[in-house]
Write a structure and sequence with these properties.
Layout: E1 3-5, E2 12-14, H1 23-27, H2 81-88, E3 93-112, E4 120-138, H3 140-145, E5 179-201, E6 204-219, E7 223-235, E8 240-251, H4 255-258, E9 261-270, E10 276-285, E11 293-304, E12 314-330, H5 334-344, H6 347-350, E13 353-355, E14 361-367, E15 369-387, E16 397-414, E17 421-422, E18 432-442, E19 445-454, E20 457-458, E21 473-474, E22 477-489, E23 495-503, E24 513-514, E25 523-524, E26 534-542
Parallel strand pairs: 10-14
Antiparallel strand pairs: 1-2, 3-4, 4-5, 5-6, 6-7, 7-8, 8-11, 9-10, 11-12, 12-15, 13-14, 15-16, 16-17, 16-18, 18-19, 19-22, 20-21, 22-23, 23-26, 24-25
Length: about 550
């Protein structure tokens, strides 16, 4: 993009070609003298460490300078095919392999005949898992010998924004990771189902049962973690059932959360500079120092299945839940790191930020963190109804409808020493979502319609409308899909089914979410179906 006229010929050339630095000059560039390749041996941090591989160029190898083709970045269609070929460069590729060894011993049966309410049953077992994986990438010169581009005016290299200069390699926005890792665990577990009470009161059946489970997990990386669950199920009347659980839960971080990392660029607003926007580098992904998540979960619900003749086939349920996670594994986002560091001087997050000589943010390692606490609470609703209508005397018919809805009252993250941030009502966690599915069958033909709904959402839960942004909401969104199918059977007893699926029947466009000018597309549709109406024809044959 730094194109000038050659003073000798008058031709438009890449400015760096007027300097024509040699490979030796590139290797001696001051900006890369302390850099080592991501392929360096584990634990290395500087060039003098055993196993460290130095970076050899701030802008690339393999005739990067000689073959450079200038282009005009203003307007569309101004780039020549030669410039496109130069920018695309070599084909990148990646490969990976995953290995898992698994063994389990399981016992189950009845411990005791019980006390009249039913037998006491149990299950117990021992599990061992060992997993390892490796991801690698090429070509070698991009992934090993070159860093993100660095300025060196003495060699004619200039104009590279600070946010790009700290990337992994020349292809920062599509960096393929070079990672590997392993994890192993031994687990022992048991579960007991205990029928407590079973009686009849008039014509009403009443039962009470309890369920208890315990699991000990011994992780190779992070040590022991215990989890347990106690559940109660009480059939109060024929039509009403109550249920409740309390549990202590544990989850080990996944391979992706532990090891995977990708480099990209981003934009933050720095409170130290009165909210001024800066283009920065962002490393997002794995953190091998993560500990397991542990959570306390409480749920309680009621199920109503009316036995009245005119409501037969109806079932309603409401379940309340509250989950509080300690050491929750989560991505906080680059902006959150900057805000907590600048506003609250939170050293545990400041350590993940790189500053330049002017104390400006140049890079944020937005890796997964064990945040101090995460909490989610809300209510789930379900309505189900099934009947067999008689519209056509000579045909077998059925009709069913099922509605699921969820209300999220809170979804918050609190980093250690930081302030809670509730993202319920945001794009990723709308307060209200729902799915409605209805199916009607007559003989071999059936029609299913399904609607999906998400509530109006905030673009950013930390913004105040009229202050940071004029409009901070994306409208609610509903789209429908359908399946029309026909079932048949051959004379030999084989069965077949042909179905036509239509997704997004009414071609409903999702809400548009505005982005920043630094993104490739300044406006993105992220709140619904992105592809519009589409069709799928399928045939199943069983014999």
């Amino acid at each position: 993009m730094d194109a000038v006229r050659d003073p000798a010929t008058g031709a438009i050339v890449c400015r760096v070609q007027l300097f024509n630095p040699t490979e030796a000059q590139l290797a001696a560039s001051p900006g890369i003298q302390n850099l080592i390749s991501p392929r360096s041996a584990p634990g290395t941090s500087k060039r003098t460490d055993p196993g460290a591989l130095p970076v050899y160029s701030p802008i690339g190898l393999d005739n990067t300078v000689r073959d450079c083709v200038p282009h005009n970045v203003l307007g569309a269609g101004n780039m020549s095919q030669q410039a496109l070929d130069y920018i695309h460069g070599d084909t990148k590729f990646g490969w990976g392999d995953v290995e898992q060894s698994f063994a389990e011993l399981l016992l189950n049966g009845e411990l005791h005949e019980g006390w009249g309410a039913g037998p006491i049953s149990f299950a117990a077992g021992l599990t061992w898992r060992d997993q390892s994986f490796r991801d690698d990438a090429g070509p070698y010169d991009i992934t090993t010998l070159v860093s993100g581009p660095r300025n060196d005016p003495a060699l004619g290299i200039r104009g590279i924004p600070n946010g790009y200069a700290t990337g992994f390699n020349m292809h920062q926005n599509s960096t393929l990771p070079i990672i590997s890792g392993d994890a192993g665990v031994w687990e022992s577990f048991m579960e007991v189902n205990l029928p407590i009470w079973d009686t009849t009161f008039g014509n009403q059946q009443q039962t009470l049962s309890a369920d208890f489970a315990f699991r000990r997990s011994d992780y190779e990386r992070s040590g022991k973690a215990d989890s347990w669950k106690l559940g109660i199920d009480w059939q109060v009347l024929n039509d009403v059932r109550l249920r409740a659980t309390k549990s202590r839960d544990a989850r080990e971080a996944t391979f992706s959360e532990l090891f995977d990392a990708q480099g990209t660029n981003g934009q933050i607003q720095d409170p130290l500079y009165n909210g001024k926007a800066f283009e920065i580098s962002v490393t997002r992904g794995g953190n091998p120092n993560l500990a397991p998540e542990e959570a306390n979960t409480v749920t309680a619900g009621v199920v109503w299945s009316p036995s009245f003749s005119f409501l037969e086939g109806l079932q309603l349920s409401v379940d309340w839940y509250d989950v509080q996670v300690e050491g929750s594994v989560a991505l906080l986002g680059a902006q959150r790191f900057v805000d907590e560091c600048r506003n609250n001087n939170l050293s545990s997050l400041c350590d993940f930020i790189t500053f330049n000589s002017n104390n400006e943010v140049s890079r944020v390692f937005d890796t997964y963190q064990n945040v101090a606490q995460a909490r989610v609470r809300g209510v789930d609703y379900e309505l189900a109804y099934h009947m067999e209508p008689d519209f056509f005397v000579s045909q077998t018919e059925s009709f069913s409808i099922r509605a699921l809805a969820g209300f999220v009252a809170e979804r918050s993250n609190t980093p250690a020493g930081g302030t809670p941030q509730d993202v319920s009502g945001g794009l990723a966690t709308p307060e209200l979502t729902g799915v409605l599915t209805s199916t009607y069958s007559i003989g071999p033909v059936s029609l299913m319609m399904q609607g999906r709904f998400r509530d109006e959402s905030l673009i950013n839960t930390t913004w105040t409308e009229g202050v940071e942004v004029d409009k901070n909401t994306v409208p609610s969104y509903t789209f429908w899909s359908s399946v029309l199918s026909y079932n048949g059977e051959t004379s030999s007893g084989a069965t077949w089914r042909v179905g036509l699926n239509v997704q997004n029947v009414f071609d409903k466009r999702p809400g548009t979410v505005p982005g920043t000018a630094s993104e490739r597309f300044a406006a993105q549709s992220l709140t619904g179906d992105l592809y519009g109406r589409r069709y799928n024809l399928n045939l199943n044959y069983n014999f």
